[in-house]
Amino acid sequence: MLLGMGGYGSGRHYGRPTVDASKRIDLARMFREGMVREGSNLQGTLRWSSGGSPRGSIGYVAMMREAGSEWLELSYTRDSDGQPEDVSQTIQLCSTVPNYGGKRWWMICPFKHVRVGKLYLPNGGDRFATRQAWRLGYHSQRLAA
């Protein structure tokens, strides 16, 4: 197997970025860990690490006090051609009621305008979006059969 084969989007080594190598916002996890709560306005910091070393962090504000107009505000600094760029990204939130009861919360992708539970920011990316918007592959797609 030649690891250098396959261009961008082929899913092979050195192809498109992967989910595993991207920063991820998982709304269900944020709820489980008390970082967001329906009926409350909360703020904090999301942190990523790799191999025990810090890999990045962003600030967030979860505005969920007003029913029907919930949102998540992300604030971070990214490198833009060697210059720091302050980014503020607003993610709309919505909820659905599953057939078996309860409530499920979603983020609305600012680019694809679809409900998702996770948003991604690949290395070199500028904003959080769906896996499909970034055309992210999975590590397993790069393994030889």
Topology:
Layout: E1 23-26, H1 27-32, E2 41-50, E3 53-63, E4 71-80, E5 83-96, E6 104-108, E7 115-116, E8 118-121, H2 131-134
Antiparallel strand pairs: 1-8, 2-3, 3-4, 4-5, 5-6, 6-7
What does this structure look like?
It is a single chain. By secondary structure, the protein is mainly beta. The protein has one domain (24-137). 7% of the residues lie in helices and 41% in strands. The chain is built from 2 helices and 8 strands; from the N terminus they run βαβββββββα. It has helices at residues 27-32, 131-134, and strands at residues 23-26, 41-50, 53-63, 71-80, 83-96, 104-108, 115-116, 118-121. The strands form 2 sheets. The chain has a 6-stranded antiparallel beta sheet, with no helix packed on it. A hairpin with a 6-residue loop joins strand 6 (104-108) and strand 7 (115-116). The radius of gyration is 17 Å and the shape is globular.
Primary descriptors:
single chain; 145 residues; mainly beta; two-stranded antiparallel sheet
H/I helix tally: 2
What number is the mean pLDDT? 86
Pick out the low-confidence regions: 1-13
The Rg value, from CA coordinates, equals: 17 Å
Number of domains: 1
Rounded to the nearest angstrom, the distance between the terminal CA atoms is: 10 Å
Shape: globular
Strand content: 35-45%
Helix content: under 10%
Strand order of the largest sheet: 2-3-4-5-6-7
**Biggest sheet character:** 6 strands, antiparallel
Going by helix content, strand content and strand pairing, the class is: mainly beta
* Number of beta strands: 8
What string, H for helix and E for strand, traces the elements in order?
Answer: EHEEEEEEEH
